[in-house]
């Protein structure tokens, strides 16, 4: 089992691809994506409307510990532009 | 005027409202609601296209569409002028966009109502629906850019940060702590892309084209889907809309009496404008009434979808709530029969 | 009696059973299944309401509904008396509620069957369906409260903790460790709210009202949806029910021979009661047979939804499994044709 | 990046609003909500029936570390009444 | 040959392609897409079963089905022989399976096209569809087993590890690091189970049986569902297929010119084989054309579902992309009208 | 609050039951299951096709810390056979 950093991102569904493309650019294409997520944050309620206008998407990304700073640096401006949450924590990869 | 109240689709809207009000656990799964909303756009687009394909581009079509575009520019401008004196400029721009644009579901309910009463509108009204969706958005984004420039000058930037939602300790949400001034929002290019590639928008346009292209044979093959089950699926969808409005009403803290008044007054003003221009242009009762419905309706799909990112400073708890929880039910219950009666009085 | 076996909807139920039995990967997505279940309630409610709107409240309607309510009180009482001697009181209360209440899907299948054979039941049966849903729940909750008080006295509390589900080391689930005695479950007020604001329940009532209110014009507009595609969507739904029953049968460890016997015997007793009372009251064949179907059916939607929180001590692996995996297929395949034959023999 | 505590709750969908209201009361409205979750716990199987009777809802809530005890204290009675799982772990907020 | 281009369902496929190409946010929720795909299988199975039930097993039926099975064995063998010289053996086996098996959606589009032009194929074609699905899969798995044995001998095992997907640092995905050689994939038993209990497969077979068993009464009850709304729901589904193809085309890095050529050439070869055998066997125009459609189509449902686990060494970015993004649109737009014209020329 | 280990698994939906049965065999039936998850990993893209051929399922399992090695040992061969991700991290159970 190796140490990895797990990133849990929750971002608007309409902008999720921008986050994923940023990760692709860093050569980190592996990810898990949960669509149809609701939420409430600084930008008010998200999800739970029939047009999915405000839907969130959940992104889970496990990255090598030595790359986490780089990833965070790449995602931070996006998070500031379009909102969303990003949590970083420790895990081990089986 | 209460004729609307025996229409099963409208009645299901009330069922949804009541079920939502008693806080039932009823929930229409989001994927189903989205399917229904796309279905409605597809059906209305296809039927409009079929009608257009039969009549071709008539004189009446040109007049209706021209008036529609005029309204789509005049209404948001008027709205912003009224609002900017009373509320934050970003909210004002977003609300102006909301009322300048249109609501497809209201359009559908209006079409159903008018058709059932023998005043079926022309297929080109669907073209008006398409063309009236975006101008207000572009206008609002420009207004917000101007407001942002102005704000920067008066250095009020930091004051406005963190106004959204109930209070949350800054350390919890973290992001506010270090970065009080949000970076500039989406570029104009991205905004235009968002506005014109919105899924709902494109399904509507696409269906219009398919309807026009596929002729009577195609029309017959699609009829059980776009006509037969239409009322039933609309009823199901309006049940969900009722639930949604009930839920939204519970979150309506940010909408005071002034904004409630605006959410009813603006539709009436818009409808009056449409009725006036349309009467002068010699439209039929159905066309006139549905144009008034379009003018009176406020967008709660495309506009919020774009404005959320294009004008992040504006509060969805205002513009979205007004359009969905006040104007939509108002139009469905009172507005549509009223505009129809007015159109009959003016033209019939 | 095997006439039911050429009905496509019923046949699709068997397809589902078989597909589930071979452990196929087939899955109907949950949002779709939920949509279909709401659709069925909406259609059946609307059609019942339409029928009621045409006939008004007839004498037969009053008799049917009155007998329905009597059954909804008698059956759970009888069930509890039988069960309490053999099994845990909480399970007994929950199972009694299950059989005292009704299954809307069984009702729908029964209506289809009877209508196809020229014995269409009256629209007021839908009212009976609505009114027979809740009394058993209330009764069961009261019985459970009584059982809880009794248990407390005899201090058996700790013995019963942790009986649910396969063994899991307490440290894994954690919550059991420090708190062997669950705090008292939901308040009576919360339970009544849950029982009467259940989404399925309210959609049914709402559709009934809309159906009655919207007259022949509304009926015609809704017909392709509530009639046309009904059999097809029911077939699709029963495919999912078959899958579900197959899955549930695999989890049926907690249902021994006695409970299987009860899950078949109780419906027969309930149906017999209904046939007796209904014959005395002079009901028509269709009304009589469908009332028997209602009496024989066990709830696997509203009751589990409420009982899960109201009687947390009871095992869903018993009451839910019995209703869904034994009684539902029994009624669909054998019960409905049987009750129909009996009704014909008694009345025709 | 600041330290936060992340709470991962899995509770019955019909009672999820009770948990969310408890968080609102504490002035912690920010959350992520995943509907349509299945599960198996002390109360047997949940989800995977067509009526969503037994559906679970997943709630993810990031709170300041100094408020976690208060939050846990508020949620614990609810968890005991209606069941559900609540995990607490460490994360950093980007 | 461009007659297909006024069919609304096909036109909606193009709408989907275009909407996808401009990177709209339009998304059909996955549960809805899955519902639609199951609906289409159910409808086509039921209608095939009804037709079979009416005609019984005719001589033509036997000939069509026999030729179908021959094609289902010949095409993958031929495909593998061609491919193994140019590409990796695992990819070759997977692609051969793809083209040896069939696409239900292409079959449906073909049936619609032929029926609309007065050349309705027989119900037994659905039986051919069912029987042509699996042989190629079994064959491919055997080929892969052979390739695996060979690879083991030449000890190339470690070289091939980690070829999938864009580069990811091994420490990120972890699993590659310590275990370069994947353990042998699924057992033959598990593969057969997967292939024959695939949900889509079983729904099709089940619906065929139900259709045959439920006679004209059942047929009438199901008609609004399986016929009425069919074109509409197919249109909606093809909209989603268009979106999907557009998305898949963007990921098509692993498909070079040779494979694109194969993805168009192989269908033409398969169709030619079918036309030749079918003409000799004296089939009708409709049967002949639809058999060619089956032969020409490539599977993007059952085959990838099984092959993903049965031949994990093969790249979905090749076999799946070719079938979905090249062959499917080719058949829909050019292939179907072409095979029909050829069948008319050969038989009519 | 007790210490537990949380396992976050993302595996193909068609093979998810094999993982769950392995957990059942270990006497650990409690779990949370999120269906309809998309992703991208060593086996290429998953999810987002209308036939759910490539769908992933997310499994969250909280286990006692002293059983985690056993669980990992049981799941590892499955992960190698059919692919998927498994992260292990620390949490406390409320
Ligand atoms: N403190 C939090 N805990 C959990 N989820 C959060 C939190 N803050 C934000 N989110 C999620 O992130 C989404 C976007 O956040 P925001 O941009 O702040 O509105 C919200 O809709 C939530 O789903
Ligand atoms: N040990 C566990 N690991 C993961 N999820 C769990 C665990 N225990 C309970 N859950 C989740 O919490 C829900 C409610 O738990 P319970 O009230 O114990 O039935 C279950 O349906 C599961 O989704
Ligand atoms: N580094 C990662 N971060 C997040 N999710 C991953 C990662 N690697 C794999 N996954 C998930 O695990 C699934 C199966 O992985 P694989 O077998 O490697 O294709 C993928 O489809 C993803 O959902
Ligand atoms: Na407007
Ligand atoms: Na009953
Ligand atoms: Na083929």
**Structural class, judged by helices and strands of chain B?**
mainly alpha
**Helix percentage of chain A:** 25-40%
Total beta strand runs of chain A: 5
Q: What's the main sheet of chain A like?
A: 5 strands, antiparallel
Strand content of chain B: under 5%
Share in β-strands of chain A: 35-45%
Pfam families (chains A, D, F): P-II
Organism (chains A, D, F): Cellulomonas phragmiteti
Protein name (chains A, D, F): Nitrogen regulatory protein P-II
Write a structural description.
The complex is a heterohexamer, with three copies of chain A (94 residues) and three copies of chain B (348 residues). In chain A, 27% of the residues lie in helices and 45% in strands. By secondary structure, chain A is α+β, with helices and mostly antiparallel strands. In chain A, strands 3-2-4-1-5 form a five-stranded antiparallel beta sheet. In chain A, helix 1 (16-25) runs antiparallel to helix 2. The longest helix of chain B has 31 residues, at 316-346. Chain B is globular. Mean pLDDT of chain B is 87; it is low at 155-183. At the B-C interface, helix 1, helix 2 and helix 14 of B face helix 2, helix 12 and helix 13 of C.
In short:
The complex is a heterohexamer, with three copies of chain A (94 residues) and three copies of chain B (348 residues). Chain A is α+β, with helices and mostly antiparallel strands.
Give a topology summary.
The complex is a heterohexamer, with three copies of chain A (94 residues) and three copies of chain B (348 residues).
Chain A: E1 2-12, H1 16-25, E2 31-41, E3 44-46, E4 56-63, H2 68-82, E5 85-93
Antiparallel strand pairs in A: 1-4, 1-5, 2-3, 2-4
Chain B: H1 8-21, H2 30-55, H3 59-83, H4 89-100, H5 104-116, H6 124-131, H7 135-154, H8 157-160, H9 170-173, H10 175-178, H11 188-196, H12 199-213, H13 215-228, H14 230-250, H15 257-280, H16 285-296, H17 302-310, H18 316-346
Helix pairs in contact in B: 1-14, 2-6, 2-12, 2-13, 2-14, 3-4, 3-6, 3-7, 3-15, 3-16, 4-7, 4-18, 5-16, 5-18, 11-17, 14-18, 15-16, 15-18, 16-18
Bound molecules: adenosine monophosphate (3 copies) and sodium ion (NA) (3 copies).
